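Q: What structure does this chain adopt?
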Amino acid sequence: MIGSVNTPGVDRAEFNRVAQLAKDAKRAVDEAPSMVPATAERDGYMTKEYAEKLDNFGGLSRQNSTQYAVGDIAFSASLPSNLVLECTTAGTTAATEPDFSGATIGGTVSDGAVVWTYMPLGTLSREITPGVNISTRITTSQTYTIPVTGYYTITIKGGGGGGAGGAKNTAYARGGAGGGEGATQIIYRRFNAGTNVDVVIGAGGAGGAGNTSSTSSASGATGGASSVTSGGSTVSANGGSGGVGQGGAGGTGGRYPGACGGSATVLSTGAVYGMPGGGSGGGEGGSDSANGGNGAYGGGGGGGGASVSGTARAGGKGGNGFVIFEYFAEL
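A:
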């Protein structure tokens, strides 16, 4: 058995390091036939965090009638647990899922215009080299250059909708509705180092103005869509709707629609607060002495408050969207 021993003329720390590498290599060989299921937590393979994330098919499952680019990764509950799909011919998938019953490592299957290659899930190893564990959050539109060849999880967030303004007349006041949260899209794609990716960040929608002459709230503006474009393929996440009477609708166009903003408050004869924006980054509802809070990270803006004896306040601006590139693995 390889272990920690006293060896004349050999640095003990270096010997132990090499011994540990040898043990790790043997373990990898022993485990290779099982291909390491996605739910297993193993050194040298996926971290538990990513295994749980990728084992949840909701975000990365193959979609019908959907465009895929070369390098995209997708999952299907119909696949053997040790395999994933990698797009090797770009196109749009069929209206129904193909038959994966004959899936073997390295084999291919046609799916509409897309050709998938079956890849072993256990080979997607987490890179642990310092300086290569890259996670880049982009908050302004730009061309992003891929720093390292490998697979990337890309999170795309649309801008939040603006909150509606508060409204009042001489008898009643109404708080504004919150803006909707931007949608979230998640893709998993392989890139070569040096590839340029065009990134567009959706701006948060402006808040509606306060209305001091009637109880009709001014709606907030819809948030902008965020997107990434590479190799002729564009993937987008839409912005959330601005606050209206029933609250701004959450953004669509992503795997995860945004949360709706809070509905406008009922009429009041006194002071009333606005409603919060949708999403974890939603702005707080304003009072008759403060505008609605601005959203953050794609959250909706808060609605403005109002009071009969005072004034009506504006809704908050929706939070700007963002895009995150997170380097994950290399085969």
